[in-house]
Design a protein that fits this description.
This protein has about 250 residues and is α+β, with helices and mostly antiparallel strands. It has 5 helices and 14 strands. α3 packs antiparallel against α5 and α4 packs across α5. The radius of gyration is 18 Å and the shape is globular.
């Protein structure tokens, strides 16, 4: 682990923090945020936690940054927060937080794919349990297939797209400190391993496909509205993650 003290001041006159400046400089010459680069950013968070933590603390210390981040963030219907810390044309950095609870969350329990590639790393909690699926003609479990992103008038709408059977093909566990990456072809579910505070940083690349798929079991509704995430929620959750990840990073020195 890096023993350098946290970087408090931005790294250049533009106000870009050392963490963002450092990872952006490592992008490929063509500027594409591809999976190797996304994985590099995830590993950098684990290899240099002080700089990443200083960036989170800088966000918390600026009212406008908190306000902007909270506006583009929300509570998932299954009880965890999806917070967008950075948003640009070619990549986003999100913080997903499952608060401490009596039992493990369902996570993202509907099998789904993504329109973009991503890499993620666990910075608090034991880790995440993933299950990856593929459609099959025989066996598996029946699901209703929905398409996300097909309605120009409502890009967030899920439109029914027939029936499908899904078969489990892989069940990876990703533990704290490890990195997981995913392309647009993978259909998966994601849930925390334990009931304690769990947080993942997701580095999201640009859109590669116009639509993606979500599967629901028969009788399960696709109507799962997101909840408002307030500035108070944002400060509390990010503060809890800073404390947990900072403690873990200090123990590794």
């Amino acid at each position: 682990m890096n023993d350098d003290p946290p970087s408090i001041a931005p790294a250049d006159p533009s106000g870009t923090h050392a963490f963002l400046l450092g990872v952006t400089k490592k992008k490929p010459d063509d500027g594409d945020a591809d999976i190797p680069w996304l994985r590099m950013v995830a590993h950098r968070i684990q290899d240099d936690p002080a700089t990443f933590l200083a960036w989170l603390e800088e966000i918390l210390g600026d009212e406008e940054s908190v306000r902007a981040a909270a506006k583009r963030s929300y509570w998932h219907p299954n009880g965890f927060a999806k917070m967008v810390l950075h948003a640009s044309a070619d990549f986003r950095i999100r913080l997903h937080v499952w608060p401490d609870s009596e039992k493990p969350s369902r996570g993202e329990s509907n099998p789904h794919s993504h329109r973009w590639e991503f890499a993620s790393t666990i910075i608090a909690g034991e880790g995440m349990h993933m299950v990856e699926y593929r459609e099959t003609a025989e066996g598996g479990k029946p699901h209703t297939r929905y398409r996300y992103g097909t309605d120009p008038a409502d890009p967030a709408a899920l439109l029914a797209d027939g029936e499908a059977r899904l078969k489990k093909v892989h069940s990876p566990h990703v533990l704290r400190g490890e990195v997981y990456s995913c392309d647009t072809r993978i259909v998966h579910t994601v849930r925390p391993i334990d009931a304690g505070l769990t947080a993942t940083v997701v580095i999201q690349g640009p859109h590669r496909t116009p639509t993606t798929v979500v599967y629901c079991e028969p009788g399960q509704t696709d109507d799962q509205p997101n909840g408002e995430l307030t500035e108070t929620d944002f400060r509390k959750l990010v503060g809890d993650v800073v404390a947990a990840f900072g403690k873990e990073a200090a123990s590794c020195r």
